[in-house]
Design brief:
- It is a single chain.
- This protein is α/β, with parallel strands linked by helices.
- The protein folds into 2 domains: 8-55, Orthogonal Bundle (Ribonucleotide Reductase Protein R1, domain 1), CATH 1.10.40; 70-187, Rossmann fold.
- It has helices spanning 8-19, 36-41, 47-55, 70-78, 98-110, 176-187; strands spanning 87-89, 118-120, 131-134, 149-153, 167-169.
- It has a 3-stranded parallel β-sheet, covered by helices on one side. A two-stranded parallel sheet has the order 1-2.
- Helix 1 (8-19) crosses helix 3.
- The longest helix is centred in the middle third of the chain and has 13 residues, at 98-110.
Length: 188
């Protein structure tokens, strides 16, 4: 969900610069790790906590902007024959606002019917499926290998990642997602 349907990275940077205008920051094009806090910790010792303060704040997840075309693509994908679509997302460890705001975001952007298609789990490998479109370069968990094949959704920090045989989806707006789904349907 985060950085696949909603712009976590861009929103984080805007809010971080608003709250800490005098502090150093990492431009999107220089992001190179999945976990923002890890990269910010290398700037100065307290930067990791300042970064976490941004996404742990009330309203952060609720107000994330949609990644252009994401919700439309999901809606169209869900209408394809023999395709069941679910949103699989991980909660933050500190989840005071995260969980309820993710549910509300899905309801606001996709409609109330999508709430039943939202799967929140710390271990995505436990979720059964054929395809997982996700921005995290390496997903680990209890099941190795998971039942699904990952399509890596492009994000600032994963652009140079070795795909290791995976496919990449750069955007929702060029309809390449259709070809990927149709290709998977043929193989299943």
């Amino acid at each position: 969900m985060d950085q696949v349907l909603c712009d976590f990275e861009g929103s984080f940077l805007v809010k971080y610069r608003e709250k800490y205008p005098e502090e150093p920051f990492i431009p999107l094009e220089e992001r190179n790790t999945f976990y923002i806090a890890d990269q910010y910790a290398k700037l100065e010792p307290d930067m990791q906590d300042k970064a976490r303060d941004i996404w742990n704040a009330e309203g952060f997840f609720l107000n994330l902007p949609e990644i252009k075309g994401g919700c439309q693509a999901l809606t169209e994908m869900s209408q394809m024959e023999d395709v069941d679509v679910f949103i699989c997302t991980s909660p933050l460890t500190f989840y005071k606002y995260c969980l309820q705001e993710k549910f509300k975001w899905v309801e606001d952007h996709l409609g109330p019917d999508w709430i039943s298609r939202l799967v929140i789990t710390k271990d995505k490998t436990m979720v059964h499926g054929d395809v997982l479109i996700d921005d995290k370069p390496r997903i680990r968990g209890v099941r190795d290998p998971p039942s699904w094949k990952q399509v890596l959704f492009t994000a600032p920090y994963n652009q140079k990642v070795d795909l290791r045989g995976r496919q990449r989806l750069n955007t929702w707006t060029d309809d390449c997602w259709r070809d990927i789904i149709e290709d998977f349907k043929k193989r299943i």
